[in-house]
Amino acid sequence: xxxxxxxxxxxxxxxxxxxxxxxxxxxxxxxxxxxxxxxxxxxxxxxxxxxxxxxxxxxxxxxxxxxxxxxxxxxxxxxxxxxxxxxxxxxxxxxxxxxxxxxxxxxxxxxxxxxxxxxxxxxxxxxxxxxxxxxxxxxxxxxxxxxxxxxxxxxxxxxxxxxxxxxxxxxxxxxxxxxxxxxxxxxxxxxxxxxxxxxxxxxx
Length: 204
Hints:
About 30% of the residues lie in helices and about 20% in strands. It is α+β, with helices and mostly antiparallel strands. It has a single domain (about 15-195), classed as 3-Layer(aba) Sandwich (Cytidine Deaminase, domain 2), CATH 3.40.140.10. The longest helix is centred in the middle third of the chain and has 17 residues, at about 125-140. The radius of gyration is 16 Å and the shape is globular. The protein starts with 14 loop residues before the first helix and ends in a 38-residue tail after the last strand.
């Protein structure tokens, strides 16, 4: 099972295009009340060390209320049109695989964040908007709080909608040393098409 997206484009979207492709524009994302990460660089560095994402790789991670990593998975896709609905489905499949849902809780206690490594600069693109839509919807369906959407490019990392970022790590950079008490386990791959997806899970 391999998913894809179109090359990034910084061109603005029309209202009809945003509706068809299920995209969140920056203003909509900012108005959604996404919780701020206390230490975004630590989160980014930790995921970069664990998954070493290259271009066209997404890393979805679940954090507990203390911002400790509970589970994560990375995956890549072939080129195909960017669509929030498609991204929602693949993110939801990853979340179901790596961590139980919290649908019985009245209020979500765990937060999902998404790190996406791509070409181009840090400016918002239609592709980013599709990821934002997909992350928000997947979190709702899995009983999680929707957390930050982070891009990783050659220029560094950027938390979209917050204006926070840094030059290291960046796409293609060597992972920096990162203190962790234990190495995250990998979930065994199963046969069939899903095993072709680059996926890793970390949980503790």
